[in-house]
Amino acid sequence: MERFVRLVVAGGIALVVGLWGSHALAWPAAALGALVALCGLCALGAGIASEIER
């Protein structure tokens, strides 16, 4: 599997898990969920950008 596909899939999963976690959990864990969502968004963007630049 190509690198951009792995980044897009992993980023999407991390984004969904992080958003769900930040919504469903209390304050300390919600901050961690928001951080996971941010990392997922960055991975998703990196995967898409790597394919656009080619």
Description:
This protein is mainly α and 54 residues long. The chain contains 2 helices and no strands. Helix 1 runs antiparallel to helix 2. The longest helix has 26 residues.
Give the topology, please.
Layout: H1 3-24, H2 27-52
Helix pairs in contact: 1-2
Question: What attributes characterize this protein structure?
Answer:
single chain; mainly alpha; elongated; 2 helices; 54 residues
**Largest pleated sheet:** none
Q: Terminal Cα separation, in Å? A: 17 Å
Number of domains: 1
Number of beta strands: 0
Percent helix among the residues? over 70%
Content of β-strand = under 5%
Number of helices: 2
Query: What does the overall shape look like?
Result: elongated
Provide the structure class. Answer: mainly alpha
The averaged pLDDT comes out at 90
H/E topology pattern: HH
Instruction: List low-pLDDT spans.
Output: none
**Which value, in Å, is the CA radius of gyration?**
12 Å
Keywords: Membrane, Transmembrane, Transmembrane helix
Task: Give a concise summary.
With 54 residues, the chain is mostly helical. The protein has one domain (3-52).
